[in-house]
Amino acid sequence: MKKIVLFLFSFVFAFGSVDVSQITAVENENANFISDKNISTSNSKFQQENTVKTDDDTIPVFGAHLFNGNFKNYTQRVYNPDYKIAVGDQISLKIWGAVEFERVLVVDSQGNIFIPKVGAVNLLGVKNSALVSVIKAHVNRIYKSNVFVYADMNAYQNVSVFVTGSVNSPGLYQGLSSDSVIQYLDKAGGINLEYGSFRDIEILRNNQVIKNIDLYNFLLKGQMDLFPFRSGDVILVGNVQNYAFVSGDVQRPFRFELSNDIKTLSDLARVAGAKPIVTNAVVKSYGEDHKLNVSAYNKMQFSKVLLQTGDEVQFNPEYISKNITITVSGEHSGLKNLVVKKGTTLEDVSRLIMFNDQSNVNALQVFRKSVAKTQKELINAQLKELETLALTSTSVTSQGAAIRAEQAKLILEFIQRAKQVEPKGQIVIDNPKSYKSVILEDGDVINVPSKNNLVIVQGEVSLPGAFVFDKGKDLKYYINLAGGYGERADTSKVLVIRSNGKAEKFNGNITMHPGDSILVLPKVESENLQIFSMLTQILYQIAVATNVVLNL
């Protein structure tokens, strides 16, 4: 595998394809890697705690969707028998019988409400459950009989609660005493997803912890313990301590916080919603010695495997299948989907394809997802290095700095466009005799090209298009048919992509064939030799992997 990677980085044309002579070696190395249960290799820690591997492969935090503003704009007026009446509360009072009285009364600054002919009634600190009895006792001192009393809280006075710790916007927030902790956290912008804990939340009153909150109870079970807040209460969100990342065949591919109820692989499979088809798990653990340990466990072992902080767990199904599915596209007259046995070669499948008169049997193309993924990863790695160079490049003069800044802007725009390209994953098959050595994989796409007599010219030419092949004509002939080179064309960087996916660089003499594509790359202008070299390399990679010229 290392030889292949070095080969790819040494020769620009190998970036977009995989030669069939290397396929067997790659598959053998991959098989050996998968079969090893314990692998140790040098590896660095995560760059950020909430990401896995690369920026393109991030795993979100479980509960991240909770704080998106759906809670902070709503309040809940829930009857709370233990609520103690405070200044500013509104009391809806009704008296009937021998005397009629109905009004909404506000508790004044001294904690009283005033009832005509009864006088002041002090309600400060009275529990909600005792409200009627306290008022009735005062009314009965004046009206001995045939008087009935009903009272209810009409509006609660707002309370002010401090929200601090690992939240996005710590501060003092107003709400009702009956509002939940989620509402106050939402007002504070939610829990910080990088280092905030959803399981370590404390409610403090008079500098004493009166309650511990674990939001996993709400997220997983829908349980919410409501209690009355008071002005001056503090919601303190702690930092996440222990966590594991989950991916694979699960309903919830997130970062989970570990606790007493999530200790083992079995617990993690439960909260992550592992699908019934899951039969095994691959666990990547980072040790204190900066070594990466990779272990595989079957489902029967899940309950015995203890999790460690930072573990990356992938739950997988392990099918014992004797067949694979192949897709056939292009110029043929048969079925588009074929089910064949494992180990079937391209030569075997070619006997099953119903070719027609227009089928180019000698130029079958194989596209593979794993090859496309490798091409994408190589391009992204180069783009990331290019981005670093563009952002860190300096100049000694102010004029040079302005030029560098403008170049950096253009390069960053190019990087964003380059990230959107999707490699085809074509395997180069230089000779039809090699069909018997290409062992097909599940999901492979076999394309049957048509016997067209066209040559496609694209990139930095005046009139890109498809032109009729003329035997004996050279590359310059087709460039001229396309209006000649454009102003930004780099005539030293012209590629010819054969119908079998093989890329060849034009060096002044090249034989053209029907179905060829000519790609004229743009000039790369940069005083920084590193940036120049990397941009050139990336343009080659993209052109070969996608058959498209990406402009700078």
UniProtKB/TrEMBL annotation:
Keyword Acetylation found? no
Q: Does the keyword Cell membrane apply?
A: no
Q: Where is the Soluble ligand binding domain?
A: 161-205, 455-504
Q: Look up the domain of life of the source.
A: Bacteria
Q: Please provide the record's keywords in A-Z order.
A: Signal
Instruction: Please list the residue ranges annotated as the Polysaccharide export protein N-terminal domain.
Output: 80-148
Q: Which InterPro entries match?
A: Poly_export, Poly_export_N, Soluble_ligand-bd
The protein in question is named Sugar ABC transporter substrate-binding protein
Query: What is the source species?
Result: Campylobacter taeniopygiae
